[in-house]
Amino acid sequence: MKIDFKKEIAGYAAQRGRFDVVTVPELQFLMIDGHGDPNTSGAYRDTLATLYPVAYALKFFSKITLERDYAVMPLEGLWWSESMDSFTTDRDKSRWDWTMMIMVPDWLTAAHVEQAKRTVAGKGGAPRLADLRLEHFDEGLSVQTLHVGSYDDEAPVLAELHDHVIPQQGLRMTGKHHEIYLSDPRRTATERLRTILRQPVRHGS
């Protein structure tokens, strides 16, 4: 039976117009870091061209060799900058740092990832294999919502989250802005893109 972790793990479901407090469990991800505007950065394009082939190589290895099948998880991104205003009132993508990542099941190991990287390298076309790592990420307490529409229209939602929702609940932002891309932008109209917007928080002012 194929496992769909989106239906089993807290945090992979959200509702538009509603801000939910969730506790995200520790998970492991394929990760690659970078900097700059994702619309123009060659490093960003190369990152996606590397993450997806490795993620699918792992999935097929798990299905065929380990006999444990699962649906490949959506692309996710951690985003940060010296000023959080670069995401809202002073939206400047050239100032963004990022980690793009895809969650993989905990039964897959670093040795499995290295094997998948060798498989992908043999086929060519994955330019950032040397930068890819497997890392555990424990996000914990977070507030999230679902944004429907263009990525460029996220700023008002984030401003509401950062400036009103979080402080009104006696919470404080910590960690990095997190996005989960539930839609494939190559196949989905811009106005229908579904993205979970998440901010890790802690209690206290």
TrEMBL record:
Question: In what residue span(s) does the GyrI-like small molecule binding domain sit?
Answer: 20-200
Pfam families from the UniProt entry? GyrI-like
- InterPro entries found in the cross-reference section: GyrI-like, GyrI-like_CCH_Lin2189-like, Reg_factor_effector_dom_sf
Protein name (Swiss-Prot/TrEMBL): GyrI-like small molecule binding domain-containing protein
Q: Which organism is it from?
A: Microlunatus soli
The top of its lineage is: Bacteria, Bacillati, Actinomycetota, Actinomycetes, Propionibacteriales
